[in-house]
Specification:
alpha/beta; Aspartate Aminotransferase, domain 1; Aspartate Aminotransferase, domain 2; 2 domains; seven-stranded mixed sheet; three-stranded antiparallel sheet; 11 helices; about 35% helix
Length: about 375
């Protein structure tokens, strides 16, 4: 992933293109395809494959735990981040007068489940200022009645990365009863996570983690286990799913086990384990150091050409995403594509995403294309 030989071996589809769109779709290594074929070989065994599925499930938990710096019992899997957040919404209890805090730099899956509560909590929106979430603004929203604070460690929209320690300390001090949930979709696999003392962490598997669709990584650290009990029907997450009293009560397992409500998404789990093994092979610190240097060069090049970003550079707290303001995103996107540069465009922005398989040549190609663009 980090050297040319490994990149050519594991990611041959990147040959001849500058792929800077991992924040939308990651490029899995060839070994992920082999893992999916292995799943199929186990699936055609019928019930005899069930033991192999379970073994892969546990192995993926172990690999994910090692990647995050948690333990395997603190890890499980849902079918998507949207499912995980909808389940989380059942696990948080609100009384009349309670409130929660959301950020307008969050992705819809982490925000919209909370808006479905009828006669539910007061929703407070923490709005960014010039691409920065100011802690002074948050402080005014927090109180003893705050039951949840939901954020993204790295914003999908702008790439802004929350300075975790001062943010966490403020929430714990001003809102001592609040659960702290963090979407690490745009961080896990790309940056060293400093938010493992949150109460719930959720990530998609098909971006920086190099897996496929159909999965979501969920972590509930042990300290929050008994505070989060999913209230949903199903069977895999129920302690009494096949007991004689199952038609009279449903007893969910507390903590992260509650987020796997049905048959696990085994194809995505097979794929995710292999993607994580590829990340382990290189190490997140090495990936971050390599890619952060490219991000710094991209910020520098954009500034030299007079292009403003949606969030300012964060030396020492970099993410993999840089979003540029533009008035003609569709035309500029077409210009990039004509030069085999793959980026995301939407609503007045161009978003670049830099992972460990990117090269300085990719950044140079972007800067050269912008320099010659005449929109």
């Amino acid at each position: 992933m980090l050297d040319d030989a490994r990149r050519a071996r594991d990611f041959p589809s990147l040959e001849g293109i500058a792929y800077l769109n991992t924040a939308a779709e990651g490029i899995p290594p060839l070994s992920v395809g082999e893992a999916l074929q292995r799943y199929f070989s186990h699936k055609v065994m019928g019930m005899d494959g069930r033991a192999l599925f379970s073994r892969e499930f546990e192995a993926c938990r172990e690999s994910a735990a090692a990647l995050l710096g948690l333990s395997a019992p603190e890890i499980s899997f849902a079918s998507s981040t949207s499912e995980a957040y909808n389940l989380l919404a059942t696990a948080v209890s609100f009384a009349e007068g309670d409130d929660l805090v959301l950020s307008n730099l969050d992705f819809p899956s982490g925000v919209t489940p909370w808006l479905q509560h009828r006669d539910g909590p007061v929703v407070q929106l923490w709005e960014h200022r010039d691409g920065v979430l100011e802690l002074d603004d948050l402080a005014a929203m927090l109180s003893e009645r705050t039951r949840l604070v939901q954020v993204s460690l790295v914003s999908f929209l702008t790439g802004y990365r929350i300075p975790w320690d001062p943010f966490r300390d403020l929430v714990r001090e001003r809102a001592p009863h609040a659960l702290l949930a963090v979407d690490v979709t745009q961080a896990a696999g790309r940056v060293a996570l400093d938010c493992l003392d949150a109460d719930c962490l959720i990530a998609s598997t098909y971006k920086w983690l190099l897996g496929t669709h159909g999965g979501s990584l969920v972590a509930v650290p042990e300290h929050a286990r008994d505070r989060l009990v999913v209230k949903a029907g199903g069977w895999f997450h129920l302690a009494n799913a096949f007991e004689q009293d199952r038609f009279h009560r449903a007893e969910p397992f507390p903590g992260v086990r509650g987020f796997a409500v049905g048959m696990p998404v085994y194809p995505a789990i097979y794929a995710l384990r292999q993607g994580i093994l590829t990340l382990h092979e290189n190490g997140i610190p090495a990936i971050a150091a390599h890619a952060d240097a490219l991000v710094a060069r991209l910020h520098e090049g954009l500034a030299d050409l007079g292009h403003a970003t949606l969030s300012p550079p964060q030396p020492g707290n970099s993410s993999g995403i840089v979003a540029m303001r533009t008035t003609d995103d569709a035309a500029l996107h077409a210009h990039f594509l004509s030069r085999n540069i793959h980026v995301m465009h939407q609503a007045g922005r161009i978003r670049f995403a830099v992972h460990g398989y990117n090269r300085m040549a990719d950044i140079d190609a972007v800067i050269a294309a912008l320099a010659e663009y005449r929109g």
